[in-house]
Each structure stands twice: as C-alpha cells, then as structure tokens.
C-alpha cells in the first residue's frame, strides 16, 4: 500500500527528533546495491535506467549527511569483481560513472559545501578518458576541506591491502624503513584511505548482508547496518533509521 506523502513528512519529523543532534558518525561507508533489482521492480525499460537512478541518488545522500555534520563518506561504486559482469553492463556502468565525474565538476553542492573528492582503487583498468576526468575532479576539489567524498571504483579490499604491503616492501628494499618498525599504524598509513579515520558506520542497501570486500581493514570496529531497500529507493527516513540504530549501539572497541 502506498503511504500518502504527508505521512512520510510526519514520520520524518518524528525520526529527526529521536536523533541525538551532537552524536553523528564522522565517517560513513556506503555500499550501494540493488540498482538492477530496482529497475525490474519499478518496471523501468532497461537495466541501465536502474543504474542511472542510483547515480542520481548520490546528491540526496550527500545533503542528508551534510545536515548531520558527517565529515566523510566512502562510496563503493565499482568493485574489481564488477569487471566480471557482461561487457555490455560494464560499458553502461563506465558511461554512468564517467558522466557522474563530469557532473560533479559543475555541481553547485560541491563548491558551496567545500566537498573534496578522492577516488580510491586501482585506476589502471579504466580508460584514459576516465582517468583524465578523475584527475580533473580531484584537482578542482583538492583544497576543499569541509567534507570528503571518497569514490571507490576498481576497488577491492584485498587488493588494497596487497598494494599497501607492496609499498611497504619497496621501502624496506630501499632501506627507508626496518621490518621491525612495521605495525598496524604503518599499514593503515599505506592504505588508500591514508590519514582518514576508519568508518564509524557502514550501510548496505538491498538486503544483502556482507561487505563484499569493502574496507576490509578499516571496518574492524565499524557498526554495520543492512536494509532491504534498494539503493535508488533509499529515502531520508531510511538514512535516519540507520543513524538512530548507530546511536543506540554501545561501541566498546573490544573493551
């Protein structure tokens, strides 16, 4: 049954009053899932239309985070495993991601809210055109310091750890560091997320309850929230439910 919009408005206000205004996660990890199933359920003409609807949802999510003073969002946009999909779908996704990087360059929200954009993952699998647009959007936002959006594409958590180990190995080989000096902090400082706090909360949409290789090292003490809602259908009330659950949990960090 379709709920009238005015009831959603009332529920939004109810949820907002339940949130502790001074207690919001500083870093949110986001696994956007369910675009294809959304397209099927919504009767959209093509699978690509579902992916495009998911791409359009990003600006809404950023605004919701800014309202709560979240400082960092790391978005899982395209994994290393996604290259295994059909060539047709990979091309569709590459086209959508490329267009998103271009629109972000002219999005007023990015400038007005001082949003820094960083792309994390292995870039060598992408076209020169894609790599050029990544360089552009990173370059034009590199001095922004109010909010950071990390876009994980060509990303895999195991690959990230392997790359970090290789960097450390090169430093050992060059005599720059001693093997006995390797600790957790050193490894963290060689990850794609160097210098950033670990995510406080990781949200995954569409009902799947796994991380699928997302931020494997960084998520050791992250709170996980799974929702049945497909990403393109994700609403502010769904986001606030996740925040409410996070605020109600007792984070002991192993103590």
SSE arrangement:
Elements: H1 5-18, E1 27-31, H2 35-41, H3 47-67, E2 72-79, H4 87-104, H5 108-112, E3 115-120, H6 128-141, E4 147-155, H7 157-173, H8 184-188, E5 201-204, E6 223-226, H9 236-248
Parallel strand pairs: 1-2, 1-5, 2-4, 3-4, 5-6
Key structural traits:
255 residues; 6 strands; Undecaprenyl pyrophosphate synthetase; 9 helices; alpha/beta
Question: What would your notes on this structure say?
Answer:
The chain has nine helices and six strands, in the order H-E-H-H-E-H-H-E-H-E-H-H-E-E-H. With 255 residues, the protein is an alpha/beta fold. The chain has a six-stranded parallel beta sheet with strand order 3-4-2-1-5-6, with helices on both faces. Helix 6 links the parallel strand 3 and strand 4 (147-155).
CATH class of the domain at 25-156 and 199-209 and 218-246: Alpha Beta
User: Strand arrangement, largest sheet?
Assistant: 3-4-2-1-5-6
- List low-confidence stretches: none
Separation of termini? 45 Å
| Portion in beta strands | 5-15%
């Amino acid at each position: 049954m379709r709920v009238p919009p005015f009831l959603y408005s009332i529920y939004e206000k109810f949820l907002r009053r339940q949130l502790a205004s001074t207690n919001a996660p500083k870093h949110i990890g986001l696994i956007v899932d369910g675009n294809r199933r959304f397209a099927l359920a919504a009767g959209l003409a093509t699978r690509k239309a579902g992916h495009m609807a998911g791409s359009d949802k990003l600006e809404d999510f950023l605004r919701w985070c800014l309202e709560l003073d979240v400082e960092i969002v790391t978005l899982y946009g395209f994994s290393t495993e996604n290259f295994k999909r059909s060539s047709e779908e990979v091309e569709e996704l590459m086209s959508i991601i490329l267009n998103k990087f271009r629109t972000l360059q002219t999005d007023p929200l990015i400038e007005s809210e001082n949003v820094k954009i960083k792309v994390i993952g292995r870039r060598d699998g992408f076209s020169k055109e894609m790599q050029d647009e990544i360089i552009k959007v990173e370059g034009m936002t590199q001095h922004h310091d109010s909010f950071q959006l990390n876009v994980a594409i060509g990303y895999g958590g195991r690959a990230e750890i392997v790359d970090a180990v290789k960097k450390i190995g090169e430093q050992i080989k060059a005599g720059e560091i001693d093997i006995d000096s390797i600790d957790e902090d050193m490894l963290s400082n060689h990850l794609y997320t160097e210098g950033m706090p670990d995510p406080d909360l990781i949200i995954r949409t569409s009902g799947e309850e796994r991380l699928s290789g997302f931020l494997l090292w960084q998520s050791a003490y992250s709170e996980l929230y799974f929702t049945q809602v497909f990403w393109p259908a994700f609403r502010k009330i769904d986001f606030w439910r996740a925040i409410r659950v996070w605020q109600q949990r007792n984070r002991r960090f192993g103590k």
